[in-house]
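User: Study the shape:
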Amino acid sequence: MRRMRSINVMKYCILICFTALSFSHPLPGQTHISVENQEKMLDSLLTYEIQILEKKEQVLIQLGDMSGAEIISNSISEIKDDLSARKIDHSQLSSELTLSLQTNQHALDEERTKRRQTAQASIFTFLILGLGIIFFRNQRATADQKRRIAEHDRSVFKTELECKECELANMSTYVIQKNELLDSLKKDVDYFSNLLTSKEERAVLKPLRSKLKEASNGKNDWQEFEKQFMTAYPGYLETLSHNFPDLTPADMKICTYLKMNQNTKEIANLAGLSIRSVESRRYRLRKKLNLSPNTNLVTFLHSLNISGNGTNGTS
């Protein structure tokens, strides 16, 4: 009987030593123990403690120490209650950790979503901004191109107008020179005709004098001049006739010569008239145009608006 008790005591001592050694030395290769593992080890330790106390209780019962066995039994009950409480706390802590993890994961997902949306919004904003910049650059380039085309068209129109005005001026000069030559020839024919004594000799020069007079009347010259003038100043004669319906063709002819800045002598040569006749026609023209004494006739004709409304020129 005593031998059995000694064996049980030895078993109890060996169990205590083995348990102490298992918790005082970590497993091979284990250098760090997490909090969760520590909790599990503590639970295991309490379980082992219960087992040891149960063995101790059995030894005390075998030794007949009932009071000591009762104390051990109460300790076992307290440890079991503590172990149960720890399991409950561990379960609650695990639930709280799980909930916290889920909450943090949800917050992390929301943050990722916000960042993704922000990135998408930024990309969209930069895209719209880039398209806007490209659009405005294209608009500006188009406007610049239209402006250059308009400037080129105005330059071409101005050049063409200058060419037409130059052609018209050259034509005027040609007609003036031609009429001056014809007038000189007429004077020479009249001079030689007066030198002749017989009517028969004078009659020989009569056809030549008629041809010179016909050539200097300026009818054909005016037709060509009017055609060239209408090319250089389209709509001018129509506007002048519309605004001043009392003007005669002869008045219109004087207006075109004045528009070309021809003086009285040049107009007389172009129209085949005397200087006094030209001055008389200019006077009548001022009255038909209702010009005041302070208004310059040439300036008025230059300031005439071809769009359809005449404007008064001032000297």
About this structure: Residues 2-23+36-117 form one domain.
